[in-house]
Amino acid sequence: PTKLRVSQALSGADLGANVKVQGWVRSVRPQKANVFLHVNDGSSLQPLQVVAGAELNDPLLTFGSAVEVTGSLKKSPHKKQPVELEADQITVIGECNPVDFPFKIKERHGLEYIRQFPHLRCRTNAFSSLLRIRSEATTAVHSYFRENDFVQIHTPIITSNDCEGAGELFQVEPSGPEIVEDEYFFSVPAFLTVSGQLHLEVISGAFSRVYTFGPTFRAENSQSRRHLAEFYMVEAEISFTESIEDLTKVMEDMFKSATEHVLAHCVEDVDLFHKHVTPGHRVSMLKCFILSTLRITYTEAVDILNRSSEKFTFPTDWGCDLKTEHEKYLVKHCGNAPVFVTDYPYDLKPFYARDNQDHPERTAAAVDLLVPGVGELCGGSLREERLDLLSARLEEYLDLRRFGSVPHGGFGLGFERYLQCILGVDNIKDVIPFPRFSHSCLL
Ligand code: 4AD
Ligand code: MG
């Protein structure tokens, strides 16, 4: 028999063929003459229906057990499943005691419940859909950049810089004896990267349009539903960029084209989310996706906050950092749609952000994209390319400006927050296979 994935079997291309399918049992329905099984192997949301004579029934055929079925593919009399597998042999490869198995047949378990079982949640419909969507969204991001002439750069995971200057670094040293000062493995303190931006800036000085998409690490203490200690970031850097408008165009374009790709390639999986896991989210997601994104300045944002009747916990005067509560309010105020906030106070942004010298207030040419349910999805800026305006404290960074320095800018998009945004998932821990956050590094 030909070995087939469930998705291949369901495609109908092999009707009549003698095939072998391996997977995990999703349901068992014994009847007088027959037993019906649903088998899944992660290749599609829809399981393959297996029909077998009652003599093939086995008490070990339980929800969650692993099986190998051989038989022939037949057209199914049921509309819902075009194809079924008429079995002539069923072998239980891995038993699964239904009493101990944390998921129960026919029950729809919530994301919070399944999160307790990081080694098993990929067996649920919701999480397997999420993983397929995550994979397709990754492809979508790469396709966008390829189609738009960006070169992918593998920026290092281990680095000696703290790009964001926020001091949320994980230090890297060999395990074993205590670290002795002056005996660093790399001769200097080294860390897991918080952002590939500085390395992208280097290469953008020769390649114009570059991007990276990899893991980044931050020792965030917060237990929030939008922060992880390890997350994936999509970062782009574009040379000869002179306005924030140029940058927001790329950010918006990438967001929309990736989402379009996901919607076109993951119809069933996205549907499962929007219908059952996060019901009611589809409309707000489509809004993000179809509308042209509003642009307001930080100064306008602060005005909006100050004119509202809402009682905020944190201050809202000019110069204040925009907190989650402020971001939420701004998104709501803008019709529950995404909004770009530009031109933040200079002092709020990292050293690399470009000084807007022509503004009455001291602002930087920086932009954040705020989206419903998540808040900040992307952060970007024009970079300070003028040597004389950069402070002397970062000799290394200055050297990047000495040889053919051009106006440039870039941004970073939190990939998990992106998935939260399009799927309506409340907690970031539910959109990454193995979440890492303070006091938790399971598996
Ligand atoms: O705003 P951030 O800190 O910007 C940078 O790191 C820039 N160097 C990027 C660049 O311009 N190349 O991070 C970018 C995005 C945020 O908008 C957010 O979506 C996400 O990364 N992010 C996190 N996502 C999950 N967990 C965390 N702890 C995150 N911190 C930032
Ligand atoms: Mg930011």
From TrEMBL:
Full protein name: asparagine--tRNA ligase
GO cellular component: mitochondrion
SUPFAM superfamilies on file: Class II aaRS and biotin synthetases (SSF55681), Nucleic acid-binding proteins (SSF50249)
Record keywords: Aminoacyl-tRNA synthetase, ATP-binding, Ligase, Nucleotide-binding, Protein biosynthesis
Recorded GO MF terms: asparagine-tRNA ligase activity; ATP binding; nucleic acid binding
Originating species: Amphiprion ocellaris (Clown anemonefish)
Entry annotated with the keyword ATP-binding: yes
GO biological process, one term: asparaginyl-tRNA aminoacylation
Chain ranges of the Aminoacyl-transfer RNA synthetases class-II family profile domain: 131-433
Keyword Nucleotide-binding: yes
Family: Belongs to the class-II aminoacyl-tRNA synthetase family.
Record-listed E.C. numbers: 6.1.1.22
